[in-house]
Amino acid sequence: xxxxxxxxxxxxxxxxxxxxxxxxxxxxxxxxxxxxxxxxxxxxxxxxxxxxxxxxxxxxxxxxxxxxxxxxxxxxxxxxxxxxxxxxxxxxxxxxxxxxxxxxxxxxxxxxxxxxxxxxxxxxxxxxxxxxxxxxxxxx
Length: 140
Description:
Blueprint: H1 2-17, E1 23-24, E2 27-28, H2 30-33, E3 40-43, H3 56-70, E4 79-86, H4 89-99, H5 102-105, E5 109-118, H6 121-126, E6 132-139
Antiparallel strand pairs: 1-2, 3-5, 4-6, 5-6
């Protein structure tokens, strides 16, 4: 009898622990509405605790102009961002290296480079279905 009672008790605890989040004022999980949409699920050295450089997200929202307005350190600089996309990190980095020439970087200094893995469908579509993008930020 004790085994049956114990099994029933464990079953009830298991079932109630799997309940979904409560509905408050007709909306589930209101905290998620205020969260910013994630653009990337991985980037260079994320696994080692490196934070995504501050200029990367603004770049995907509005290009170099958005980077200048979002990042004070680049607001007065002339910047150029060169990017290349691939189906994996190695391919995107190789294509980026091939696209960097003296003509498009003349007079600019490399400030930082990073690769990211895209999440948003519109970003992936912009890069022809490629999900990895390597970026170089140049300043003058």
